[in-house]
């Protein structure tokens, strides 16, 4: 939860860093989790011009596997984040961060069967 919205972790790139490197580093910095099998799912380009503070988000959605399934996320940046929880994709709490909300509304499924 950040600014009253449910969001995934977010991180800025270091120059020359791949999506996978940024995702692994960022998740480790924010949660302490170690991941493997990191893969790009999709990228969104979201313009929010009809809001009090217009914004533009390019969001990179990645998927990975925990190196240790028993790991529990830690809140390593409590000044930025209220905490971490696991949710079923079909039962996410509201309100969602705008790009994530749009992905859900558009029917995106990060865990397709088959």
UniProtKB/TrEMBL annotation:
Entries under SUPFAM superfamilies matching the protein: Nudix
Domain Nudix hydrolase stretches: 1-110
PROSITE patterns cross-referenced by the UniProt entry: NUDIX
InterPro entries linked to this entry: NUDIX_hydrolase-like_dom_sf (IPR015797), NUDIX_hydrolase_dom (IPR000086)
Cellular component GO terms, alphabetical: cytosol
GO molecular function terms attached to this record: 8-oxo-7,8-dihydrodeoxyguanosine triphosphate pyrophosphatase activity
GO terms for biological process, alphabetical: dGTP catabolic process
Pfam families per record: NUDIX
Gene3D superfamilies with a match to the protein in the record: Nucleoside Triphosphate Pyrophosphohydrolase (3.90.79.10)
Protein name: Nudix hydrolase domain-containing protein
